[in-house]
Write a structure and sequence with these properties.
globular
């Protein structure tokens, strides 16, 4: 039961359009009032990437695993749907941690570093040519980006088009 003035805990259970998987997961995890657990039907390949072990992580897997513990609950063959999709599906369950593994005040910097590191496939971080501003905090530069803050709820920078890149993942 929620304390006075606090929202009640909730779960998200859905079979979602595969085209919005990354954007929806990010929205749920970064929400001001995130769910306790997320259970989604997603493409099998995406589910396996989200649940990847260290050494096999993608930016999507890393971002999910900072906020919670993902696991594959079930596999669903394409033939179980009508009309059948071209890919198999999986049900993933993400149980969110009470707090992210990275302190909230450091999430923006952490994700900028991760994005820069994952942008160079097959390279170590030492070999990755980071742009000087990749780790710079916009507030330290006086918001030199044109006077308009383009940060999302987690402090990460968004492109001028808003959600234009929200669905992209590597």
């Amino acid at each position: 039961m929620a304390e006075a003035g606090q929202p009640s805990p909730y779960l998200v259970v859905a079979n979602i359009p595969y085209t919005i998987t990354s954007a929806l997961i990010r929205h749920l995890l970064e929400s001001r009032t995130p769910p306790q657990r997320v259970v989604l039907t997603v493409q099998r390949e995406v589910a396996e990437r989200i649940c990847a072990a260290p050494g096999e992580l993608s930016t999507l897997a890393l971002s999910v695993q900072v906020y919670g513990q993902p696991q594959i609950a079930a596999y669903i063959p394409a033939g179980a749907f009508y009309p059948p999709p071209k890919v198999d599906s999986a049900v993933i369950r993400v149980t969110l941690y009470p707090e992210p593994l990275i302190p909230r005040g450091q999430l923006a910097t952490f994700f900028r570093l991760a994005k820069a590191g994952f942008s160079q496939k097959r390279k170590t971080l030492r070999q990755c040519p980071l742009r000087r501003d990749a780790l710079a905090n916009r507030s330290d530069r006086g918001n030199a980006g044109g006077g308009r803050d383009r940060s999302d709820a987690a402090g990460r920078n968004r492109p001028p088009g808003g959600m234009a890149e929200a669905g992209r993942s590597r």
